[in-house]
Amino acid sequence: MLLYEKNNHIGVLTINRPEALNAINSELLHRLHDMAKELSADTSLRCLILTGAGKAFVAGADIAEMRNLSKAEAVEFAQLGHGAFEALESLPFPVIAAVNGYALGGGCELSLCADIRIASERARFGQPEVGLGITPGFGGNPRLIRTLNRADAMELVFTGRVINADEALRMGLVSRVVPAERLMDEAMALAGAIAANAPIAVRAAKAALHSRYTRFLRDDLDKESELFGSCFETADQRMAMTAFVEKQPKSEFIGE
Ligand code: DAK
Q1: Is residue 35 scored above 90 in pLDDT?
Q2: Cα 190 from Cα 237, distance rounded (Å)
């Protein structure tokens, strides 16, 4: 599920579940958490690139696994996700997300745990959760509101609209868009520029930049888990997720 390589102080971590467009299930969350702990202890690492195998970065949390969760299980799933994502976000060196394709739902949220996002022109971003009867649950709400301007963050979450790489650039969700075949070279060049700088200074800069960004983030994540749980076991959540898994059209939402 995870592939890892390291060369010249730069690590490349690839989410590798292409048959499900790298959708994140609980096993993958455990592996990501363990991997983040391992990487965090590697004092020779100066930068990490995070990407996805195949045509997706990550197409979201695994809807098939999620659809029958109870409210309590959903809160637990959110907490598992928050733990893994926070471990990645708090790695002591810079992390670049090289977004190669779909970054939807939990995938967009995973990319938000990186310090820098660069996108292939084929990348697509979105938080489609409200169309599945739930809220974003892996930190999308607090991280988007810290990353984008308020109107763009609200519009993305409330509409569930999927945006292309150019629109993501306009919103400041990514810092550059590159041709698909150049994505990993550009990510490597960026990582190389970071890795050529003084590692103690770069780690210190990351800690300084994160200080404000992460203030109150934990409170906001706890609030998100609670609200996320409240959407489960509703008729709308069950209907919308079942429709996705069974490849059927959705019925109208009824607010129950
Ligand atoms: N989950 C599970 N399987 C997925 C998946 C997903 N999110 N996305 C794709 N797949 C699977 C498809 O079911 C299909 O499987 P097979 O039929 O081949 O077995 C395979 O990947 C290929 O997908 P498609 O055939 O659909 O490929 P297309 O190119 O036609 O379409 C697509 C690509 C990305 C437009 C489409 O796959 C799609 O709409 N996927 C779902 C996108 C989505 O809605 N993502 C957001 C998921 S909700 C939480 C924390 C976080 C979250 C939720 C809870 N808690 C704290 C509890 C986050 C929620 C989400 O991420």
Answers
A1: yes
A2: 41
